[in-house]
Amino acid sequence: MARHMQREGHKCGRHRVRRLMRLMRLVPIYQEQKTSKKHPEHKVYPYLLKGLAITRPNQVWCPDISYIPMRRGFLYLVAVMDWHSRKVLSWRLSNSMDAGFRVEALKEALARYGPPEIFNSDQGPQFTSTDFTDVLYDAKVKISPLGRLLRNRLPGNGWTGAGAGSIIG
Questions:
Q1: Which of 34, 40, 99, 156 has its CA 20 to 30 A from that of 76?
Q2: pTM of this prediction?
Q3: Between the CA of residue 94 and those of 35, 51, 75, 106, 141, what are the distances in Å?
Q4: What is the homologous superfamily of the domain 60-168 according to CATH?
Q5: What are the residue ranges of CATH 3.30.420.10 in the chain?
């Protein structure tokens, strides 16, 4: 922003711009991290929801991760949700993308509500890593990737746009 202002002919430095933005309660938008990219070594799962009517709770669950911008970096919010009821079954907050907080959220949801039939997520490495999928295998849950047509319509990706927006401001 400071460079843009200087190019426009205004004399100001980055510290002044930062202070003025803070006074106006403006928050810079950071570039999103690319967590939905497939990891080349992780298994690719078949899509199991084609033609399936989701008619009851615990039939299909989905996870999502949102990024909450902080002064220095991000906080990561993971939620496990039921597609039928759109209820958040469990959630965890972390300052790193390690697998621990994602696995904890999944284990809590399984302990509280029992296993779903299908766990539907994107093919990002955070949900296809062996430590995460081993928990699903042990609970005898089928794993399915999020279909391209549904990616922006169902609650699996709802947190990234609307949820993050309501957290930020």
A1: 40
A2: 0.64
A3: 15, 36, 6, 14, 25
A4: Ribonuclease H-like superfamily/Ribonuclease H (3.30.420.10)
A5: 60-168
